[in-house]
Amino acid sequence: MNKYEVAIWVFMLAAFLGFELIRRVSPLLHTPLMSLTNAISAIAVVGAILITGAKDASLFTRTLGFIAVVASTVNVVSGYLITDRMLKMFKKRGQGKR
Amino acid sequence: MSSFYSVLYILAAAGFILAIKWMNSPATARRGVIVGEIGMLLAVVGTLMRFEVVNYEWILIAFFIGSAIGVPIAYMMPMTAVPQRTAVSHACGALASALIGTAEYYRHTPNGFIMGALVLETLLGFLTCTASLMAFGKLQEILPTRPITYKGQNIVNLGVLAVAVICGIALIMAPERTWLFPIFAVLSLIFGVLLIVPIGGADMPTVIALLNSYAGLSASAMGFALDNKLLIVAGALDGSSGFILSVIMCRAMNRSFSNVLFGAFGTIQTSAAKTTEKPVRSASPEEAAEILDAARSVVIIPGYGMAVAQAQHKLREMHDILTKRGVEVRFAIHPVAGRMPGHMNVLLAEADIPYDKLVEMDEINSDFARTDVALVIGANDVVNPAATNDKNSPIAGMPILKAYEANTVMVIKRSMSPGFAGIDNELYYMDKTLMLFGDAKSFVGSIVKELNAVGAAAASAG
């Protein structure tokens, strides 16, 4: 099995896992869910770091990478913080106020 | 297992999976955020440790700038702006992955499988970026929220997409055609804009979810291009999440994807909107307060209008008073109420309304017949009986909240102008319906005042 096949297997399994997990998320939390998955998909920062920090990076690719690191850092930081801010608001009856 | 960073990547992927798993209940969800954060931290640290990364200055400056933008957004953004924020973050994520794809292309000019993944990554990335910015403009009402259509629109849109795809295929066949890449990128960017032009406000929940999915798939394609399993997994999770949410939204409107994207909701039926003046009954805040006070069970149906008027805090006051007096108050949440999935829940939770009072459509619909008062606030199409009764209605077949089954229906509305889709709502003309004309926030405020007055009078009399 070459590495591309492995990658496709990984994708297929992860997609089905995602379907099963997300189907179980209560509609109550669909907005925080979207903001959390947004933060998670900001994992693109990994690719951005590899390009920005590479030895052979030209000014052009480094600039693109730099913008990509900024954009995904914004998503990571604001994504997790906002998700938490939203989740903090969800309280059951009788659960005291903050 | 070649090196240490791979271990960190595997742990990070596990963290992301757990984070989503724990989102299934409000009780565990915050734990999910923490484990997601740990996952992200491990992934970033692992990447910084890789031997390929030699130059740190630019990265650290970018981290700093990104945090300086992200932290204020997170803390200062009002909860009503959540849909806009989500659109912007889709744009940022998609932009990042498109730029990484572009940089990879100019660095290596790869071929074969990797080039295919790169083309997919940049296509989805660029189109999602401009599409999300357009969605942001519409949500922020910088751009007109009504769908903009013209003759042959679908042909133009699909034509642009087709040319972009052909350019992409040409690049996969011969990656050394560097002159073609900018054309390909620009076409993708244009298609993103064109895609959102005909989309109206009511379809935003579906479109936002779909863009979420594209942004995830773009990140996953990057994983293929960079041979990075962590990116593939995280992108696939995000992609399937957005996909499921948009399927749920489509089902809640009884429409198909293609219908949402190419159907241009809200234009066909403007002519069908009846202009005949039918009598409606209206009521004052005093009368409304009396009816609510005498009720045993009240179901409140919020819609986008509640968000616009910021009426959720006044609603909570009303909810508190009525609950204290032994009235059962619940909120019926339609899946597409608002501008993004779960929009109403977040606003009501923000106003400190306990989440076990927020009931989904399927659960509450059988209760309406036993409900004394259904109070509709800023919602329209989601309670329109035409969806079930009128086969020719543009919203025919859309599952609705059966407010019309309640003993009394009260509708807070600014005026009799038809809702977003321009469809007349027969609910307003029913004998048991009372129209409460006014701004949602101030009207609920007046009801609260009246309820307090009634309570004070009762206390002094007793």
* Count of helix runs of chain A: 4
Walk across the major sheet of chain B and give the strand order.
Answer: 3-2-1-4-5-6
Distance between the termini of chain B: 79 Å
What gross morphology of chain A would you assign? flat
What is the gist of this entry?
The complex is a heterodimer of chains A (98) and B (462). Chain A is mostly helical. In chain A, 73% of the residues lie in helices and 0% in strands.
Structure description:
The complex is a heterodimer of chains A (98) and B (462). Chain A has helices at 3-23, 30-41, 45-52, 59-89. With 98 residues, chain A is mainly α. Chain A has a domain at 27-89. The mean pLDDT of chain A is 92. Chain B has 462 residues and is of the alpha/beta class. Chain B has two domains: 78-262, no CATH class; 285-461, Rossmann fold. Chain B contains 17 helices and six strands. Chain B has helices at 4-21, 26-48, 57-76, 82-108, 112-139, 153-173, 180-196, 204-226, 229-253, 257-262, 285-294, 304-309, 312-324, 343-350, 361-364, 386-389, 440-461; strands at residues 297-302, 328-333, 358-360, 373-377, 408-413, 433-437. Chain B has a six-stranded parallel β-sheet with strand order 3-2-1-4-5-6. In chain B, helix 1 packs antiparallel against helix 2 and helix 4 (82-108) packs parallel to helix 8 (204-226). Chain B is globular. Mean pLDDT of chain B is 90; it is low at 265-275.
Describe the protein's topology.
The complex is a heterodimer of chains A (about 100) and B (about 450).
Chain A lengths: L2 H21 L6 H12 L3 H8 L6 H31 L9
Chain B lengths: L3 H18 L4 H23 L8 H20 L5 H27 L3 H28 L13 H21 L6 H17 L7 H23 L2 H25 L3 H6 L22 H10 L2 E6 L1 H6 L2 H13 L3 E6 L9 H8 L7 E3 H4 L8 E5 L8 H4 L18 E6 L19 E5 L2 H22 L1
Parallel strand pairs in B: 1-2, 1-4, 2-3, 4-5, 5-6
Helix pairs in contact in B: 1-2, 1-9, 4-5, 4-8, 5-6, 5-7, 5-8, 6-7, 8-9, 11-17, 13-17
